[in-house]
Amino acid sequence: MNQTLRLIIANPELHAGWLNSLSFMENAGARKISACEDECMTGIIQLKHAAEEHRHAFYLKKQIGKLDVSGFQFYEEASMLAGKASKQYLHRLDIQVCRYLKSEFQLSGQELKYAAYLFVTYAIEVRADALYPIYQEELSAAQSKVMVKSIILEEEGHLEEMISQLNDFHPDWESYANEVLMMEDKLFSDWLVAIVKDVESKTKNVESIA
Q: Residue 6: is its pLDDT beyond 70?
């Protein structure tokens, strides 16, 4: 992961694509959280999460402006690293978790949506707590103008809030969460492989042009 991030950060076009991919996934997460809201029974924590994920998406998109690049205004697949995989990652996790929770708890409708929100968001926060510090470490080492320290602090708070909500959801939530984490780990590994392949391909193309 660190070596790939070094290659990405060293190349403004790759770095912009990476930031755009992260921004897309933060935005997709925010939209999924909002889609799980109940008309009446939506609490302040769920609203806070949706708002902060949208802000993360905006913040990451704004970071692209610190790079000398153009063409990253939107979320076209070509403007992202591993565009197709980046767009499918969270959607696939959501589908897998919904199927799992429906089978385990016999949930449907709004109850299933809320349970999926809890477990999917928990898995994503665990991943964010691992990924963003590594990214910031490499940004600092490269003396990059791009920073994600503010996101790291908020993601740590999100994880604590998700654990609190999951404790209220089920006394044995951790055993179910471990299954969800394994699903996410497989999807993340697939996404990372796609990122590495895309970086290698684009780096070779630049070298051949040079």
A: yes
Tens digits of per-residue pLDDT, 73-115? 999 999 999 999 999 999 999 999 999 999 999 999 999 999 9
- Rounded to the nearest 10 degrees, the angle between the axes of helix 109-141 and helix 12-35 is 160
Query: H/E/C letters for each residue in the chain?
Result: CHHHHHHHHHCHHHHHHHHHHHHHHHHHHHHHHHHCCCCCCCCHHHHHHHHHHHHHHHHHHHHHHHCCCCCCCCCCHHHCCCHHHHHHHHHHHHHHHHHHHHHHHCCCHHHHHHHHHHHHHHHHHHHHHHHHHHHHHHHHHCCCCCCCHHHHHHHHHHHHHHHHHHHHHCCCHHHHHHHHHHHHHHHHHHHHHHHHHHHHHHHHHHHHHC
Burial degree of 57 (CB within 10 A; 0-12, 13-18, 19+): buried
The pLDDT, as a whole number, for residue 210 is 43
Beta carbons within 10 angstroms of residue 205's beta carbon = 10
Task: State pTM to two decimals.
Answer: 0.93
Phi, psi (degrees; rounded to nearest 5) at 145: -75, -20
